[in-house]
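Translate structure to sequence.
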């Protein structure tokens, strides 16, 4: 390309150096993030379309660190945590916090909600995962059926047999699993049969233009119908408008999650949402 002159090239390498430096800085800062109490879990409500009530919470990680000038988005730090292996201790911490929180809401007499926690493929490759989760549930006193693990189709990419074995163990212990970002992976349909999945989370990229795009309408409708015939629940993520919601209702989607109802919020705010009288 003509425009790729010496200056552009130099700019390109500087940008790369900058990115590499930030990545290194991030991994270093991530090592101390937990002990320095820089991490926080926020919760986003999941709403039943049949009743309009909150039936679940998705735990989402937040990180603020002075070393990197403030808040770092999960889109940036989760990949760094995965590459460095730090997702294992960080992921275990999130599980512990979320399970403890779910127990605290029960103890406060609030309506029961499922607690959904995101798991990275790397966490899911660890054969000790079912044992770790069982231990956390027991120590915190939460019945396993309250916990829902959000997995992407990527968990099975590396070792499908191993992933299925871990899923079976979790299923036997009574923990629920959902497929996150459903429809964006490659192996969705062939693996669905073997996965002990409870719910499909329809990816927000399909939900975004649902009220205007005929193809997205068709895709979402097909996912909901397929899920129903397989006996799986559906939840749509990234719901931002009344129009999106009314289409999902028409299609008999089970649940929704998105800014239309609430952003992810700190636990005190979630508690308020949960205790608000409805109807
Ligand atoms: P995800 O699991 O697909 O989470 C949904 C993301 O969409 C969240 O971004 C959430 O804040 C955002 N969101 C929710 N409602 C709306 C909406 O109506 N519109 C739009 N545009 N976005 C909405 P967040 O919190 O930045 O997390 C990004 C990703 O980082 C997550 O995607 C998940 O893959 C990962 N992540 C977050 N927390 C954890 C964690 O504790 N462990 C692991 N392994 N991954 C995590
Ligand atoms: Ca998720
Ligand atoms: Ca998702
Ligand atoms: Ca996503």
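Result:
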């Amino acid at each position: 390309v003509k425009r790729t002159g010496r200056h552009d090239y130099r700019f390109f390498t500087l940008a790369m150096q900058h990115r590499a430096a930030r990545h290194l800085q991030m991994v270093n800062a991530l090592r101390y993030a937990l002990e320095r109490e820089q991490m926080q879990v926020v919760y986003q409500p999941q709403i039943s379309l049949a009743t309009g009530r909150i039936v679940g919470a998705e735990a989402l990680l937040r990180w603020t660190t002075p070393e990197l000038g403030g808040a770092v988005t999960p889109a940036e730090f989760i990949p760094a945590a995965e590459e460095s292996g730090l997702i294992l201790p960080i992921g275990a911490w999130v599980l512990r916090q979320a399970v403890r929180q779910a127990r605290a809401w029960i103890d406060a007499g609030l309506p029961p909600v499922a607690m959904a926690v995101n798991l990275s493929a790397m966490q899911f490759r660890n054969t000790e995962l079912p044992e770790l989760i069982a231990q956390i549930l027991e120590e915190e006193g939460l019945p396993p059926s309250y916990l829902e693990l959000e997995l992407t189709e990527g968990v099975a990419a590396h070792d499908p047999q191993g992933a299925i074995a871990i899923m079976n163990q979790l299923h036997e212990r009574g923990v629920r699993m959902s497929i996150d970002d459903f429809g964006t992976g490659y192996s969705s349909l062939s693996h669905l049969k073997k996965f002990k999945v409870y719910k499909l989370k329809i990816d927000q990229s399909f939900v975004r233009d649902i009220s205007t795009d005929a193809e997205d309408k068709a895709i979402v409708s097909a996912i909901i119908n397929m899920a129903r015939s397989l006996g799986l629940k559906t939840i749509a993520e990234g719901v931002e408008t009344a129009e999106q919601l009314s289409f999902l209702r028409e299609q008999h989607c089970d649940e929704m999650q998105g800014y239309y109802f609430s952003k992810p919020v700190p636990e005190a705010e979630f508690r308020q949402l949960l205790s608000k009288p409805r109807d």
